[in-house]
C-alpha cells in the first residue's frame, strides 16, 4: 500500500536534500537518470551510460557477481539467460536493501505519464520533462510502496522488473535505500559531513554513499571500526563485509582502507580511482580467506616500508612490534634490534623479521590466480564493448610498488604489495 501523502512528501523532500543538496545541475541529474541495463556483449555486466552513477551501479554489480559466483562456481559467465540475469539483479538490489536493517522496506516507484508509458526507454524525454525542471518532474511522479518482508520486495521487483530497468531505475534504488533505512538514521551516520551524497557540480557519489550501498551504513571512512581524531569520533567499517573495497587513493596516502574491506567474505572488490568505480572479482575462493597472523604482520611491516625495499630502519622496530601486537617493551626491542641487525647496518630485513617472529608461516592466498575486471563505461572498454577482462596474477617474492606507473596495478598493490598481473589483450583495464 502507498505511504501517507504528507509523510511521503516530507521524507522525499529530506531524501532529495540529502542526495542533492539545495542546488543541483540538471545535467548532473540527467546523468543519473538511467536504468539497470545489461551489456549485449556480457550477459551479467551492467552498462553505465554516463559518468556519475557508478556509486550505485558498481555496488549492485558487485553483489550480483557475489551471488552468481557463490551459487554457480565454475559456471560459464557467458551461459546466462536474460531471465537469470534479471533475477540476479533483483536479488542484488534486495541484498543492498537488507543491509539497511529496516523495520519495513519502502520501495520508490516512478509513475509514468501516458506518453512515457507508450515509449518506455531510458533515453526518452517527455514533453512534461522538457517544459519543467527534470528533478522536480521526477519527484512529482514518484510514489512509494511499503513492504514488511524482503521476500515481498523481491516478489514485487520480479513482477515489476521495469522499475529497475527503465529510466530512473538507478535513482529509484537510491531513494528506496534511504527511505527504507530512514532519512534521520542516514543523517546521523553522516553527522560529521555536511556535503550532499551526490556532488552537485560533478555528479560523483561521496564515500558515504558508496559505504551505504556496500555496507548499509553511510559512514564517511574506510578504516576498521571508529577512530578518534582530534577529539572527534570518526566512523569506519564495523565488520567484515560481503564484498570489498580498494582505492588508488590509499596509494596516494589520502586514506587507509581497513582489513574488513580488504579481506571480504567473497572475492569481489569495488575498485576506486579518483573519479570512477569498477569491480574486480575472482573464482578463487581462497582470496577471500581471512588474513593469517603472518600475513597481517607482513602487511604491517610493509606499511613502514613505503618504498617497497623489503627492509625498515632498525629504529622503527618498536613501532612495528607494537602495531603487530607483539612484545614491544624497550629492553626486548633492543635485544631483537641487535639480533636482527647484527651487522649494525641500521636496517632490518623483512625476511629476517618473518623468520624470527613467524617461522614457517604460509600464505592464506595462492601464489597464482585468475582475476576478472568489470568497467561499466563503454568508452573504457576495448572496442566500446562492456565485457569482463581477464588477468593472470602472481604474488612475487619482491614487491613492485616502487616500479609501477600502472594505475590498476598500483590499486591492487594496496592489498597485494607483491602482485603482478598479465591481462588479456596485453593492456591493463582502465580504472576510469
TrEMBL record:
Catalysis performed (reactions): Thiol-dependent hydrolysis of ester, thioester, amide, peptide and isopeptide bonds formed by the C-terminal Gly of ubiquitin (a 76-residue protein attached to proteins as an intracellular targeting signal)
A GO term, aspect molecular function: cysteine-type deubiquitinase activity
InterPro entries linked to this entry: EF-hand-dom_pair (IPR011992), MINDY-3/4_CD (IPR025257), MINY3/4 (IPR039785)
Pfam families registered for this protein in UniProt: MINDY-3_4_CD (PF13898)
EC category name: hydrolase
Keywords for the protein's UniProt record, in alphabetical order: Hydrolase, Protease, Thiol protease, Ubl conjugation pathway
Superkingdom classification of source: Eukaryota
EC number: 3.4.19.12
Residue stretches making up the Deubiquitinating enzyme MINDY-3/4 conserved domain: 16-341
Annotated GO biological process: protein K48-linked deubiquitination; proteolysis
Described purpose of this protein according to its UniProt entry: Hydrolase that can remove 'Lys-48'-linked conjugated ubiquitin from proteins.
Stated family: Belongs to the MINDY deubiquitinase family. FAM188 subfamily.
Protein name per Swiss-Prot or TrEMBL: Ubiquitin carboxyl-terminal hydrolase MINDY
Gene source species: Euphydryas editha (Edith's checkerspot)
